[in-house]
Amino acid sequence: MKYTIPLMLVMLLTVTTNAHAIRIKDLASFEGVRDNQLIGYGLVVGLNGSGDSDQAKIQTQSVVNMLERMGITTSVNDIKIKNVAAVMVTATLPPFAKQGNRLDVLVNSIGDAKSIAGGTLVMAPLKGADNQIYAVAQGSILTNSFAFGGANSSAMKNHPTAGRVPNGALIERELPNFLIGKAILNLNLNVADFTTASRIVTAINDKFKSAVAVSNDPGSVALTIPDVYAKRPVEFVAALERLEVKPDTTSKVVLNERTGTIVMGESVRISTVAITHGSLSLIIKEAPQVSQPNPLSSAGETKVVGRTDVKVEEENRRLMVLQEGATIGDVVRALNQMGVTPRDLISILQAIKAAGALQADLSII
After folding, report:
1. Where are the alpha helices (DSSP H) in 40-149?
2. DSSP-assigned beta bridge partners for residue 214
3. By the 8 A CB rule, do 135 and 172 touch?
4. In the chain, is it the N or the C terminus that has fewer CB atoms within a 10 Å radius of its CB?
5. Which of 67-81, 152-166, 325-339 has the lowest mean pLDDT?
6. d(C-alpha 39, C-alpha 23), whole Å
7. Cβ contacts of 65 within 8 Å, gap of 6 or more
8. Prediction pTM value
C-alpha cells in the first residue's frame, strides 16, 4: 500500500494592485465609545420538572429569599422544587444607550438543570464592572432545543441549558456622554501603524483646512474640535468618520498546516532565490503466496508464504529561479509550474524564509 498524507488547500491571495480607500469609521474608534459587559444572577421558573435538583441547594435558597421579600415566610427545609433553575444572565450595554432602551440577554444554567426550555426568567438586575445596576432582565427564554429522556434512553437537540431573551433587558442607568464638555477627542486605530496614522492626520487636516489632528504614536490620533463645531460635536464626528483613507499593512504570510490554509498579502516580495523540490514516494505491497500439495498426494500440507515488495520512487524536479522583487503572483505561478502540493508549498515558504529571501513576516498558526 502507498502511504500518503492528504492535505486540503484553501489559498487566499490578495493580489489587487491598488487597495481601496476605507472610511476612518472602519479603521478607528473614539476613546470612550465602547461596549460594556453586564452580568447578573437570576431564577428561571415554570420548568416542567427539568430544573435543578435538591442537591444543588442554590435555587432553593434563592426561592426562599425571593418569597421573603414578597412577605412570605418559609424555610429551606420546608420547600422542594424541580421547576426552578439558577442561572447567570449576561448582556452587552452599547455606548450611548438610553433609559428605556432594550437589550438581548443570554441565560445559562449554573446548576444541574436538565433544560431551561420553556421557562421564564424572573426579574434579574444586571451590574457592570463598577457594581452598579444598569439594566433589569425578565422574560420568556428561547433555546431552540429540547431534551427528553427515560430510564434507558434520551433525546436532545442543540443545547437546552442555555438560551436568550430577545429584548429582555430594560436599561435603567445611562453611561456618561463622553462628548459633553470636551475640546479634544482621541481616535484609536484598530491596528496601530505609523503610515496609516499619518494618512489619517493628513486627510482630517485637509478636510477641515486647519491643524485639527495630530498623532504622537502609531495607535492614536488626537483631535481638537474646531470652534465652528464647538457646540456641534456630533456633526464634527460624523463629517470626520466619512473621510476615506488608504491603510497600510505589514507584509505577512500566514500558514496553517493542519487545514492547509495559506494567506499571503499583496505586498509580499521575494529576493532572488533558486528552488528545487523533489517528491519521494514509498510503496509497500503485501502479496502472500499459498503453497499446497499436489492433488491426490498422500503427504504435505498447505502453507501461506509471505512476500513483500518494497519500491521507492522519487520524481525529478527542475530548478526554478525567482528573480528579486517577485510579487506573490509570480511566486504562486512559479510554484504551480513545479507542480507542488499544499504541504510542499508550506515547506518551500518556510525554507525561503529561513534563507532570508522572503521579505515578509511568516506566521504559523
Report:
1. 58-69
2. 222
3. yes
4. N
5. 325-339
6. 34
7. none
8. 0.67
- Is 114 strand, coil or helix? coil
Q: With 50 as the cut, is the pLDDT of residue 8 above it? A: no
Q: Are residues 42 and 28 part of one domain?
A: no
| Number of domains within the chain | 3
With contact defined as beta carbons under 8 Å apart, do 74 and 67 qualify? yes
pLDDT tens, residue by residue, 121-169: 999 999 999 999 999 999 999 988 666 655 555 666 678 889 999 999 9
Does the residue 16 lie in any domain?
A: no
Which of 225, 245, 265 delimits the end of a domain? 245
The vertex-72 CA angle with 66 and 73, nearest 5°, equals 100
Residue 192 maps to which CATH number? 3.30.1360
Q: Is residue 17 part of a domain?
A: no
DSSP 117-147: TT-EEEEEEEE-TTS-EEEEEEEE-B-S-EE
Instruction: Collect all residues with Cβ–Cβ distance below 8 Å to 1 and sequence separation of at least 6.
Output: 283, 284, 285, 286
Buried b / exposed e along 27-41 (16+ C-beta atoms within 10 A): bbbbeeeeeeebebe
Provide the domain limits for residue 107.
36-171
Query: Is the residue at 8 inside a domain?
Result: no
Non-local (6+) Cβ contacts of 35 within 8 A are 92, 93, 94, 95
One domain, residues 56 and 116: yes
**For residue 326, how many other CB atoms are within 10 A of its CB?**
20
